[in-house]
Amino acid sequence: MFDLIIKNGTVCTADEMFKADVAVKDGKIAAVSEDLSGCECAKVIDASGKLVLPGAIDAHTHLAMPFGGTISSDDYFAGTRAAACGGTTTVFDFVLQDFGETMVDAVKRRDKLCKGRAAVDYAYHVAVKDVSGKLLDSIEEAVEYGVPSFKVFMVYDFGVTDGVFYKILEKAKQCGALIGVHAENNEMVNTLTEKFLSEGKTSAWYHYMSRPEFVEAEADRRAIAWAKALDTPLYIVHLANKDGVKAVTEAKDEGYTIYAETCPQYLEFTCDVYKREDGRNFVCSPPMKGEESRQALWEAIKRGDIDTIATDHCPFQTSEKDWGKDDFTKIPNGCAGIENMYPYMLSAANEGKIPFTKAVELCAANPAKIFGCKQKGSLAVGKDADIVIYDPEKDFTITNEAMHSDCDHTIWEGVKLHGYPVQTYSRGKLVYDNGDFVGEEGWGEFVKCSLK
Ligand code: URP
Ligand code: ZN
Ligand code: ZN
Predict the structure, then answer these.
(1) Strands (E), 286-445
(2) In whole angstroms, what is the distance from residue 25 CA to residue 428 CA?
(3) How far apart are CA 422 and CA 317, in angstroms?
(4) 415: CA distance to ligand 1 center in Å?
(5) pLDDT tens digits for 147-180?
(6) Residues 53, 59, 64, 67, Cα dihedral to 10°
(7) What is the bridge-based pairing of β-strands 429-433 and 436-437?
(8) Which-ligand-closest: CA of 336?
C-alpha cells in the first residue's frame, strides 16, 4: 500500500519528460509507472495538466548569517519555509568558520541554530577562513562528517590570501573535497572604492563601479589557473560576468573539471538596477553586470557551461540597506531569492528559453551530483520523495506580500512569471499548498553528503 500517488502528471527529469504516475511510500519514491490505477493507496492527487518535478536544491544560501554589521534576516525556519514555497526541498547553507575553529566544530556550532528549525532538508558547505596549525587537516574530518564542500572568499575582510587558497585546493585534492570560490579581486575593489569615496561618489551605482566586470573576471581566471595547476576540481559560485564565462568555457574545453554556478538575479537584472531609487536593495557581491554579461550567462546555460543555478539568498531588511543611503560601502551585501529560483527558471522554460529538462538539471540534478547529495535531485525509485507539482498555466506576479521569507522587501517585486509551483512535498510530506506554507518547523533533516 502506497502513502501517496500523484496521477496523470507529466514527469520531468533532467533527461526526459513523460506521462506517468508517481507513488510514494515512507518518504521515498516507490514507483514511477505509466498507470498505477488499482494500486492501494492512502491518498491520490490528480496532476492532470501539471508537471511533476524533483524538488530543487539551492546550493548557496546564507541563513542567519552575521555579515555587514548585522545578521541576514531569514533564520533557518524563515529561509527554509520560503524555500519550500518556491519548490526548493534542500538548501546548502554556508557555515562561516571562526578563527581557530576546526571545520567540524564550525558545522556543529551552526547546526545548533538549525536543528529543530528547518522546514526542508539542509546540508552545509564550510566557508574557510583559517587553516593555521592543524586546521587545514580538519578539512578531512569534515569530509568524513558529511560536509565535503568548502568555499573560499577572495574578498571581504575574511577573505583568504592566494597562498591560503592554494593550500586549501591542495588539501581538497588529497582528500576528495570540492572547493568553491567567490572570485573578485580584493585589491581592485578596495582601490576603486577608496577612489570613488574620495570623489564623493557614494550612491549604490558605485558599488557596481567598484566591482565591474574585470574585477570579477581577473579573479575567475586566477582561481581557475590554480585549480588547473593542481588538476583539482573547482566550483565557481555566483558567476556574473562574461569574461569569467569565457574562462570557464575554455577550461572545460581543455578538459578541466571547473563547475560554474550562476544565480537568477544575474540572469534577470543588469547593473542598471543600481541607478534606481531603491538601487541599494540590489547591492550584492558580485554586483549585477552589463547586458552583455547577462546574455553571456544565458548562452552559457544553453551551451552547458553553467552547471547549477543557486540563489545566494542573503536578505537584509530595508532599514539595514538604508545604512548605505549616503555611502554604498555601508550597505549589507546580499538579496533575497530562495523562493524565486525554481519558479524563475521553470518560467524561463515555460516560455521556451530553455527546455524544462535543463531547468531540472540546473536546479536539482546537477547540484545533487556535484555535492554528493545522493538521495536528492531526481524522481528515481528509492530517492527521497521531494516532489514539486507545477502548473504551467498559472500566471504569477512576484510580490513581497506573497513571499514566505521574513525580509520586508524583495528585489523580485513585480516580476511576472508564467507557470508556478502549486505543491511541494518534502520526503512525501506536503509542505506547500497553493500559496500557503503547510509544513512544519523542525521537519528538515541534515543531509550527509559524500563525493566518494
Ligand atoms: O552579496 C552577497 N553575495 N552576500 C552574501 C555573501 C557572498 O558573497 O556570497
Ligand atoms: Zn559570495
Ligand atoms: Zn554567497
Answers:
(1) 308-309, 387-397, 416-426, 429-433, 436-437
(2) 8
(3) 28
(4) 22
(5) 999 999 999 999 999 999 999 999 999 999 999 9
(6) -140
(7) antiparallel
(8) 1
Neighbours of 136 (CB within 10 A): 17
Residue-wise over 326-341: b if at least 16 C-beta within 10 A, else e?
eebbbbbbbbbbbbbb
Q: Which ligand is nearest to the CA of 310?
A: 3
DSSP labels for 36-90? -TT--BS-EEE-TT-EEEEPEEEEEE-TT-EETTEE-S--HHHHHHHHHHTTEEE
Residue with cell 523542525: 442
* pLDDT tens digits, one per residue of 288-329: 999 999 999 999 999 999 999 999 999 999 999 999 999 999
Which CATH fold would you assign to the domain 4-53+384-410+418-433? Urease, subunit C; domain 1 (2.30.40)
Nearest CA to ligand 1 atom 7: 285
Superfamily of domain 56-371, CATH level 4? Metal-dependent hydrolases (3.20.20.140)
CA of 304 to the centre of ligand 3 (A): 22
3-state secondary structure at position 283: coil
Q: Whose CA is nearest to atom 2 of ligand 1?
A: 334
Q: Which of 74, 284, 311 to mutate to test the pocket of ligand 1 (most atoms within 8 A of CB)?
A: 284
Confidence (pTM): 0.98
The angle that helices 103-114 and 138-145 make with each other, rounded to 10 degrees, is 40
| Residues in the ligand 1 pocket, defined by CB under 6 Å | 62, 182, 284-285, 312, 314, 333-334
Hey, how many other C-beta atoms are within 10 angstroms of the C-beta on 391? 18
Q: Any idea where the domains of the chain sit in the sequence?
A: 4-53+384-410+418-433, 56-371
Atom of ligand 1 nearest to the CA of 155: 8
